[in-house]
Amino acid sequence: MELTPEESRVLGCLLEKERTTPDAYPLTLNALVGACNQSTNREPVVSYNEATVEDALTSLRQRGLARRGMYPGSRVAKHRHAVDEQLGLSGPELALLGMLLLRGPQTPGELKTRTERLHRFAQRDDLDAGLASLMSHEPPLVAKLVRDPGQNEARYVELVSGAAANHPISPERPVHEASSALATADGRLGALEDQVQQLRSELDDLRQRLGE
Prior knowledge:
Elements: H1 5-20, E1 27-28, H2 29-36, H3 50-62, E2 66-69, E3 78-81, H4 83-87, H5 91-103, H6 108-114, H7 124-135, E4 142-144, E5 156-158, H8 175-211
Antiparallel strand pairs: 1-3, 2-3, 4-5
Helix pairs in contact: 1-2, 1-3, 1-5, 5-7
């Protein structure tokens, strides 16, 4: 899956507005155009017309990432995302992915501040866990970039568009993936220790029998 810049912006806006303006969500085409063209919380700032947004929506629906329908109280069709249905993501993960789609590569510190309106991460560990989950998703949806000289933190980039093409990806694995590998190794070591103990018991038993 590789979204175009237009599809990425539309999907990011749907993810954002579901949380920030729930009373107006799902969005009309006009409202979605306005969301795409916001001058705040967007990098880069764009100027899409209705045809551009409609084309992006059509493609997203074909990918199973968006839905269109008539909703109570509205005389026109409205649009919503279906990322949670298609990719099985949680609320925190949707918030992180949406912000990365809207503003490009960001550090965990930037993400914690900017996702505050979408999802409040009580602790930095909670945000790190969300990023790690997105990195270990099949296929991966987020990657950690190589830290630039002078940077205190490495940035993260979404992988559902071509945004990562011009950035060096870090080979570092997600923390929880490394922990899982360590747990597996510990489990294997424990099994080997059990086998050794069993062999020792059998050897002692054999020695006693031979001694008789």
